[in-house]
Amino acid sequence: MFFLRNKLNFIVVIFFLASCSSMNVTEEKVNSVDVKTVKASSTKSSNVNYDTMAVFANATVYFEFDKSNLTSKSIQTLKSTVNALNENSSIMITLSGHADERGTREYNLALGQRRAEAVSDYFVLNGISPDRISVKSYGEERPCLIHHLQEFCMRKLMYLLLYFLSLAVFQCLDLKVRLPLHEQLFQNFQHL
Amino acid sequence: MKKILLIYFLSFHVISELTLEITQGTDDPYRVAIIKFSGADKATTDIQKVVFDNLIRTGEFTIFNNEDLLSIPQIEEDIVFNDFKILDIDFLVMGKVEDDGLNIAVEYKVFDISKAKKVRTSTVYGIPNKNRQLAHYVSDGIYQEITGIPGIASTKILYVTEDINFKLLISDADGNNEQVLLESTEPIISPSWSPDSKKVAYVSFETGIAKVYIQDIASGNRQVAVENSSQISSPAWSPDGKFLSLTMFQDGNAEIYILNLKNKNLTRLTNHYAIDTESTWSPKGSKIMFTSGRSGSPQLYELDLKKFNSRPKRITFEGNYNAKGSYLPNNEGIVFVHRADTNFQIALKYFNESFVRPLTNAQMDESPSISPNGNVIVYAIKDDGMGLLSGVTLSGAKFRLPASKGAVREPAWSGYFR
Fold first, then answer.
1. In this predicted model, what pLDDT tens digit does every residue of A56-69 receive, in sequence order?
2. How far apart are CA B234 and CA B215, in angstroms?
3. Is residue B383 predicted with pLDDT exceeding 50?
4. DSSP for B265-306?
5. Average pLDDT of the residues of chain B
């Protein structure tokens, strides 16, 4: 035991001395970091055929901060949408979830998805086929108001902007309802 | 003793896309004399200037130039150590730039004045048109010799800008040498470096929904990480580079998966009806930290990968929003986005402490990323609605990297390239 301790001390001392008298000698070559630029072409517009589609009806459901549960006012909004969807089975619906800039980006992306899913679940519970619903989230990347206006300008489509300010927060979820161009059907959405 | 962790950022100016704005220095900086590098041409002046700026920018040094000194040795043998000792100088640096017209090399020597001896001789060989990078290597070597910590001047930062289009950019740690990796009309988020700093993973909305892509920096070759019709986001590389942790939405809810990059096998890690996202790996790769809403508010959880079927353990309890965590490289703590009342701040928590240390005090701070030496944290702020990058040291001092054009966000600090 004593022997071992002495030996350890000895090693420590040698190491200490060695580190004191060290002189670093290095040689290195600079690494080249080449960068190639990639341009991503958006394939988004191909998802929707704008020739056959005529009307974008748009409804917004608001949520509380960090919440994805439907309020009684949002359910009022959704009830009318369910009626319209039931009256014409050719209507497809895109639910796009958003969140405001508070909170982290990835968490908000997931939150937007939950909000869209909550609305989707409500539709399915009310007899709408899941095949007619597509769900996606933009999180905080496309604040919903700006997103609407951009699409409005870009697509020059007939557009209904209906905001249901059930809560004075800017957490929102869009309902984009794609409709065939039909006067009568269009009437169904006037009361939304 | 010098306070190694106490790094502040001093005034610094560059003519480029991102510009560093600074605050103050440490109470007890290292006093370093840098003799004008020998070598006649303009390259010598340029290299010396970058080295000088890099060292000043760390805030840990008071630099003495030729005109501040009592004697100016041209060769090693001429050094009169006492002339430096009188001025309380701790270290002396001498350098020589050799330029044969094609290739350029810098030889530098570091002398410890108190010991009156040479402690380092180094040579860095450059490559054509990369003199800045060469100077970064020199400053990192000097920094490491004096402080004992690797320098970060030769590292890089990834970030996203938005003006007309969205761009994923890469620049030197000082904001210089900005280059575009990806340009898109749709949002780009969550850039992440591979551990060898040769590839990046990120989320792009170019198909209309969030998808994770892996891109080779040098060739521009890229691929979708997982072929799947649902949303995928939040990529993070394992420290060995073999796996990518991801958030997948195929179950109708955000869950964390691990993708084996070789055979493309997916393993589900979380299973909870609440949101689970923002996964990140511990320095050794044995743990995954992530943000989960399972307690009712976003909090950080840790999962032990070594134990089969282990349950996530909650690790943040202070504040009503704790998200986007990352481990310090020495695994002594975590840095994350923290909200105690209404403001989102960047905060630090050491594992051996029971309290959270807020590092920033604005309203909307996000996306913290730690330098590979663990000393500096770069993060995104909102100033007048505009996105900017800021930096903070572990001691709480700050600097800014404002962009000349567009909103900047989502910074990610690389590993070492040297």
1. 456 678 888 888 88
2. 15
3. yes
4. -EEE----SS-EEEEEE-TTSSEEEEEE-TTSS-EEEEEETT
5. 88
ipTM of the complex model:
0.87
Q: Judge if B190 and B315 occupy the same domain.
A: yes
In sequence order, the β-bridge partners of residue A172 are: A62
Indicate if B256 and B343 belong to the same structural domain: yes
pLDDT at B165 over 80: yes
Alpha-carbon span B409 to B381, nearest angstrom? 8
Would an 8 Å CB–CB cutoff place A31 in contact with chain B?
Answer: yes
- Among all residues of chain B, which has the CA nearest to that of A143? B187
Residues B195 and B326: their CA atoms lie apart, in Å, by 14
Contact B189 A106 (CB under 8 A): yes
E strand or H helix that includes residue A60:
strand A55-63
Residues of chain A contacting residue B219, judged by C-beta atoms under 8 Å apart: 36
- Is A19 touching B (CB cutoff 8 A)? no
Q: Is B279 a residue whose pLDDT tops 90?
A: yes
CATH architecture of A56-188: 2-Layer Sandwich (3.30)
- Hey, are the CB atoms on A29 and B141 less than 8 Å from each other? no
Q: How many Å apart are CA B36 and CA B333, to the nearest integer?
A: 41
How do strand B366-370 and strand B199-204 relate by DSSP bridges? unpaired
Amino acid identity, residue B80?
V
CA-based R_g, chain A, Å: 29
Residue B247 located in a structural domain: yes
Q: What is the pLDDT of residue A1?
A: 43
Question: Which residue range(s) make up the domain with B71?
Answer: 30-147
Say yes or no for a CB contact (<8 Å) between A109 and B182.
no
Q: What is the pLDDT of residue B58?
A: 79
Give residue B73's pLDDT band: very low, low, confident or very high (50, 70, 90).
Answer: very high
CB contact under 8 A, B278 and A33: no
Q: Which residues of A touch B298 (CB under 8 A)?
A: 66, 103-104, 107
CA distance A50 to chain B (A): 16
Q: Are residues B162 and B211 in the same domain?
A: yes
Please give the full DSSP string across A145-170, using - where no structure is assigned.
HHHHHHHHHHH--EE--EE--SSSS-
Structure tokens at B339: 């909200």
Q: Which of B119, B147, B175 is the last residue of a domain?
A: B147
- Determine whether the interchain pair A27/B125 forms a contact, defined as Cβ–Cβ distance below 8 Å: yes
